[in-house]
Amino acid sequence: MSWDPQRAPDGFAVPPMPSAPPPAPANGWRALAVALLNLSGLGLGYAVVRRWGLMALCWVATAILLVVALPADPDGVPGTAVVLYLVFVALTAAHGASVGLRTSLSWLPSALIAAVLGVVLLAVPAAGVVLYDGARDEATEQMLLDRLDRADKLVATSGKQDFTAAEAGYRRALTAYDALADDHPGSRAARQVPDRLRTYYETVAAPYARKDYCAAVPPLTYLRTVPGTIGKKELGDLAGWPDDRLATSLYSCGADSLSEGSAGWSAQFGELLSTFPESPQTGKVEPAVKSAVDKAVKSVRGNDPCAAVERLDGLETQVRGLPGEQAGVADALGKDADRASDNARSGAYDCGVDQYKDKKFSDAVTTMTDFAKNNPHHKNRARAQKIAIAAEVAQTVPAAGKRLPTTASGGSIAVTVKNDSPDDITVMYTGPVTGSFTLKGCAKCTSYSLGSTLGIGFKPCSDSGKHYPQRTIHLPVGTTYFVHKSQSGLGKTPASDTAKLSPGYIYTECAYTTSSLGY
After folding, report:
1. Are strands 507-512 and 495-501 parallel, antiparallel or unpaired?
2. pLDDT one-digit tens code per residue, 26-85
3. Residues of 44-76 as b/e, b for ≥16 C-beta within 10 angstroms?
4. Could you give the CA distance from residue 42 to residue 490 in angstroms, rounded to a whole number?
5. What is d(CA 231, CA 181) in angstroms, rounded to the nearest whole number?
6. Residue 206 CA from chain centroid, whole number
């Protein structure tokens, strides 16, 4: 007979051995303890119920979060990663509570102690959050300091360039400073902005420090616009820092240009008068203008009177354009302009004389004609008219311009000038005396062909049947240069004659026109 191990000798059946310990009675404190221990993110709740694989899964999830979060970034951890991790931790807490409800604990004497430990360990993730926030704040500070450093380098680089090329860089740096001050007012970078702005102002205004006043005007003008971007709290006394420097630069640049005869001075003085009408620098403007007019007036009697007259004309125009009303100097500037104008008109005579002496006869004609027209009561008007006539004669007969004509008139020798042409003519002459007159055209006269004038016996003004317009003048002994110039008609090219007058003779000049090729 065989023995059945399932039955006892007395005939009763023995139950099989269990595959695992029987579940512990349900215990809410134990479930809470496991859930709290899992909330730390380290899976410690699974450790006390001996679920090692699940604990390892918690460690892996936490490690992934740390890899994503570290090193700390100013933007923080991506929101999706945080949400997924919190959901995971919540699920492990819920699952741990389910497991711990009927599973006895290892290593810990009671569920109450485990729950207390779970609460205490919640400080681990809380401390991690605090530490991470601190690290993120420091990362943000470093980011802002980097921005400050980049703006500083931009200012330094721009400071090595001409302002026109550097302005864009200056504006970008200013925008960066403004963003730091406005958007991150409590940051270490923002607290350094006021000092950086002082360096910024000094760098932009470097031409002023070098006393390059004309070059300093644009950057200083730009600096006066900065308060429109940066608040007065950050600027402090820098808000008015450029004003006196700009006023000094405008005056100094304008004064230098004025003394050099450059045209840009009026723009500098005009801006000074309108922008800083009560500044000490503005008070120097009118005296500087007056001095420039005085200097130009003296130059009229110098080596280049024409340049002096041109200078006076320019000064008059520019001085009249200055806005002197706000500064209270409009009347004084008006007097300076009047003096420049008066001396320019009278100085035209000296200019015309100089042009005549330099053989610039065409210019002398224009200058002296304008002078006589513009100065009807000037003491030199009569001689200016004589010089204009002599200069026009000298354009045709250069020898006539060897000496400056005087206002002398008359003489002992009679010279009769007749007009044997159909054109009205102007007769000009210069020599010991200078003058001009006009003769009407001859009604019955015509122009001569070029060939007929070359023939033997050609003698104009000899037809007794014609009435020749004529005029007799009296001239001194000596050489007189004549020019006959048609006022209209065919005789466009002036004719000339050089007459050496001697006592005891009667002289006749005849004007006629010739034509060739049918004209």
Report:
1. unpaired
2. 656 666 666 666 666 666 667 677 778 777 777 777 777 666 666 645 554 566 766 776
3. bbbbbbebeebbeebeebbeebeeebeebeeee
4. 120
5. 9
6. 17
DSSP-derived letter for residue 493 is S
- Single out the residue of 311, 407, 303, 397 nearest to residue 359, CA to CA: 397
Query: Torsions phi, psi of 277, nearest 5?
Result: -65, -20
Collapsing DSSP to helix, strand or coil, 50 comes out as: coil
Residue 429 CB contacts under 8 Å (≥ 6 apart), including other chains: 389, 393, 435, 436, 473, 475, 480, 481, 482, 483
Residue 399's SS3 state is helix
Which residues, listed in sequence order, are joined to residue 437 by a DSSP beta bridge? 427
d(Cα 40, Cα 117) in Å, to the nearest integer? 11
**Helices 361-374 & 381-396 angle (0-180, nearest 10):** 150
Note the pLDDT tens digit of each residue in 325-364.
999 999 999 999 999 999 999 999 999 999 999 999 999 9
Query: Which residues lie below 8 Å from residue 105, measured CB to CB, with a gap of 6+?
Result: 30, 33, 34, 48, 49, 111, 114
Residue (of 172, 146, 174) closest to 234 by Cα position? 174
Dist CA 149 CA 188 (whole Å): 12
Interatomic CA distance for residues 24 and 100, integer angstroms = 9
C-alpha angle with apex 91: 86 to 94, nearest 5 degrees?
125
CB 496 within 8 A of CB 397: yes
Are 299 and 308 in contact by the 8 Å Cβ rule? The answer is yes
Predicted confidence (pLDDT) at residue 87 exceeds the cutoff of 60: yes
CA distances (Å), 376 to each of 306, 369, 384, in order? 20, 11, 11
Cα-Cα-Cα-Cα dihedral of 141, 146, 147, 149, to 10°? 130
Residue 459: phi and psi, rounded to 5, are -145, 100
Q: In the 8-state DSSP scheme, what is residue 434? A: -
3 state DSSP class of 440: coil
- Kindly report the CA angle at 472 between 467 and 476, in degrees rounded to 5? 155
